[in-house]
Amino acid sequence: MGTHGDGGVARRQFLRGLGATGAVLALPSLAAACGNSAAKSGGRSTGATSTLKVGVLTPLGGVFETVGKEMRNGFKLYLDTHGNKLGGRKVEVVTADEGKAPADATQAGQRLIFSDKVDFVVGVVTSADAVALRDLFDQAKVPLIISNANVTALSTTAKSPWVYRTSASFQQQGASAAKWFYDNVAKSDVWVMADDFVGGHDIAGAFTKAFADAGGKVADSVFTPFQKTTDFQPYLTRVRNGGAKGVFAFFGGSEAIAFVKQYRSFGLFDTIPIAGQGSLADSAVLPAEQDDAIGWRGTGNYYVPTLDNPTNARFREQYTGAFDEEPSYYACSSYDAGQLIDLALKKTGGKTSDADALVDALEHPGEFDSPRGQMTMDAATHNPAEHFYVYQDAKENGKIVSKVIADTGVFTQPTG
Amino acid sequence: MGWLDANAVTLVNGVAEGMLLYMMAAGLTLIFGLMDVLNLAHGAFFLFGSYLAFQFGRHGNNWLVAFGAAVLVGAVLGAILAVATRPLAGRGHLDQALLTFGAAFVLTGLASAVWGYGFQSVSVPSALAGSVSVAGHQYPTYRLAVIVAGLLVAVALFVVIERTSAGAIVRAAVADRDILAAMGVNVHLVMGLIFVVGAVVASVGGMIGSPILGVNTGVGDQVLLLALVVVTIGGLGSLKGALIGALLIGEVQAIGTALFPSFAAFLLFGAMAAILVVRPQGLFGLVHGTRT
Known about the structure:
The structure holds two protein chains of two kinds.
Chain A: H1 7-33, E1 52-58, H2 65-80, E2 85-86, E3 89-97, H3 102-115, E4 120-123, H4 127-140, E5 144-146, E6 163-165, H5 170-184, E7 190-195, H6 198-213, E8 218-224, H7 233-241, E9 246-250, H8 253-265, E10 274-277, H9 286-289, E11 297-301, H10 310-323, H11 329-347, H12 355-363, E12 375-378, E13 383-396, E14 399-411
Parallel strand pairs in A: 1-3, 1-4, 4-5, 5-6, 7-8, 7-9, 9-10, 10-11
Antiparallel strand pairs in A: 2-3, 11-13, 12-13, 13-14
Helix pairs in contact in A: 2-11, 3-4, 5-6, 11-12
Chain B: H1 2-35, H2 42-57, H3 63-85, H4 93-115, E1 131-134, E2 137-140, H5 141-163, H6 165-175, H7 177-182, H8 187-213, H9 219-234, H10 239-259, H11 264-278
Helix pairs in contact in B: 1-5, 1-8, 1-9, 1-10, 2-3, 2-4, 2-8, 2-9, 3-8, 5-6, 5-8, 9-10, 9-11, 10-11
């Protein structure tokens, strides 16, 4: 009771309480950091006829639960439609939880490699997890097929013979949008808005450079606090006061929803033309954005469910039949992660014992039969050489759908 | 004129953000000032309010139900925490911080068990959809409504606390609860009611703020941190301080982010530090038992 009548003492105790809060907050991460245990290596099956073990490493809960489910579904669909065989070998799937932080993901990765002794691992949602897993797979010489995490460095400075990607790099996505943006949205006084994290800077940087190559000029860039921004008003006011004639943006998840809604409600949608990375208004966020997404244009998409090609028609029918929902790009790239293993093992005759032969086969798997259209593996970056598409959202029969309006051509991740 | 014209929308937006912060800080400052309890679970009230808005108002047609649910759930949670923290009233703020922080974890876990971890969003009620013109620029109607709602709450709390006999008892409890108890007033009941009122205001604030702040399990902590800054600036136990502090922080955030984006976070805590240097007890804090 001593604090009554003495504001100074009360405040000190109050602040001390805050300090205690900080200490409590720090505990879980400490526990997680101590949780890793060393595991021993052992021989895995390398024969061409025995069962092939594939680890599927995705979040089983948390913020990325839905993304994880779509990735598992996409991979499962490839197995189900190919007799549960990859490269002629029967497949046993080992599911592991990517968890909430890189420490969880590396722990799960160690278990898959050293105790489950899997031959391949597919999955990985977040870039932070992918970076943390890179050394583990590089040293264990077990192929990791990333079917989402877009961090560019894994294709350039941190490239490994044992790490591949079937989605796309951030730089690929940003660069692919530039020429189309120049022709269709704005040419000068363009502002770039993105999240303040490695992916935001990657996409913004690649766009800015490619936009200059196309003859355009980016006036300024705005980076907002990553996964913390709910109110974009101050940033939108800056862009408007800066005299922007066009905006290129990149946000995802709840930030994408807030951004798309606020860009319209603050009156910018009708005055400053905008287009941005597909995650702004794709199927994951459309149910929340509703009519605010109408007319929105999304760039840098390697897959859009409405793509018109025979493989996608079949894929879409099979996927909706099996899981009762439209496939996302997460599902497509995980389907193709299965396909990459399949194509590579067909080249090695089903064997994983010869490391050089296996790496060579993963680097040169040949043409994919992908729902996204034409696709090969770029041996120089371990990243797909693929088309990127632009969609525009429209309302059809009371439902908002993303319709493909442009194919910006094939892009590969630049080396170095 | 030029600067004002260019930043009018930002200034208005700072007021809207300040009002949301006020609804969070009002309960926090009352509970601390009156009961001497540092309630770190206060963010959970806000969190539940925002999830109830998501539950009932996500299609823009059940906002009255959402409001009723926010009041009810806020009251129940507030009553539970009031009872739970009573034995700790004399045990120092570290014990209280641990208990209420644990309660915040439990409540956040409960919310994620019911609604999942995903980031959700809530559409504004259809009557308040769209934009109006503020100084020649479009501004969302809903945010103006938030300002009005915040002002209503502020006026209501002010009238009750400053102009009614029930409010006089509350003020007496802040000043000297032992004398009040000696006069035959059930101080524990008064404290419990204040806890409940604070929780209800925070829960309603969460409901009102959900279309702006989004709905996810982190929103409670995010607002709690800012509200703690507001309470520290405004002075512990002062409703007036909570209002002025909330508006100040709302403006510092809005203007800071618009004009000096790299320094926005520094400006926030810089403002707090500057005020505490000049007035260590906060703007309207108690000094030696006198109300300013």
